[in-house]
Amino acid sequence: MEKALFLAAFFFAYTIQAVTGFAGNIFAMPVGTHLLGLHSSVAVLNAMGFFACGLLAVMNIKHVHWRELAKIVLTMLPFVLVGIWLDSVLPLDVLLKIYGLIILLVGAKNLVSKRQRFLPEWALWIVLALAGLIQGMFVSGGALLVIYTVQKLQDRQQFRATLSMVWAVLNFIYAGIAVQQGYFTPDVVQVVLMCIPAAVLATLVGNRLQRHLSQERFLKLTYVLLLCIGLVLLVTS
User: Fold this and answer.
1) What residue ranges are annotated as transmembrane (predicted)?
2) What string of DSSP letters covers the chain?
3) Phi, psi at 7, each rounded to 5°
């Protein structure tokens, strides 16, 4: 029963992931942690994040902005490593709540604002570095990365495809770490195999649904999801 419930939550979360290019793991993780346990859930979602995001990126490969992809990955990775180290030496629960509150406020502010406000270039570099740091500490840097990418890639197809490729790269690295740490137990492998058809279906459904969204509605959905991510972080941290 636990695996079936997780599969349903996974399908819902990854359909959203396919529509927007982000938010899949942040919505699936609380359910997975409760039903499968923390380490098993992380291992499953890292593997499926690589598979599903990679699939979506390949399906939309012509829309990937390769220069921004390289900039994002090369900037984030060193800070991801720093964040992983900080997570092992510091108590970070309070910081996670503050981060959740900031993301909630950013989502709410952009929803009520009548026009999009742009950050200066130097601030965007800071946002990108912080996205890597938060990703390393909490595996939740996607919300900050979205703030960066919304400004840099204003075409929704480029936004989705490029973010999907970023998550494919990062989840591949995390999955490799999980293998080394021995978290891919037979039970985890079984859940991964169960999730593969659901991931393919969710990707196809989400990829189709996003075609019906205008750029304006896509942006609004993005900010609604940021608001939801902030709430999830506040409630689960």
Assistant:
1) 42-61, 73-102, 122-150, 162-182, 188-206, 218-236
2) -HHHHHHHHHHHHHHHHHHHSS-HHHHHHHHHHHHH-HHHHHHHHHHHHHHHHHHHHHHTGGG--HHHHHHHHHHHHHHHHHHHHHHHHS--HHHHHHHHHHHHHHHHHHHH-SSPPPPPHHHHHHHHHHHHHHHHHHS-THHHHHHHHHHH--SHHHHHHHHHHHHHHHHHHHHHHHHHTT---HHHHHHHHHHHHHHHHHHHHHHHHGGG--HHHHHHHHHHHHHHHHHHHHHH-
3) -60, -40
> What is the pLDDT at residue 1?
75
pLDDT of residue 99: 83
Tokens representing 160 are 């989705």
Give the residue extent of every domain in the chain: 2-236
pTM of the model: 0.89
**pLDDT value for 94:** 74
**Mean pLDDT per 10-residue segment, the chain (237 residues):** 88 94 87 84 89 95 96 93 80 76 84 77 92 81 89 93 94 87 89 94 94 89 89 80
| Burial class of residue 132, CB neighbours in 10 A (0-12, 13-18, 19+) | buried
132, 77 contact by CB (below 8 A)? yes
Question: CA–CA separation, 7 vs 21, rounded Å?
Answer: 19
Decide if 124 contacts 148 (C-beta within 8 A): yes
**Whether the Cβ atoms of residue 115 and residue 233 lie closer than 8 Å to each other:** no
Round to whole Å and give the CA distance between 85 and 62.
36
Give me the sign of the Cα torsion angle 64, 159, 170, 183: negative
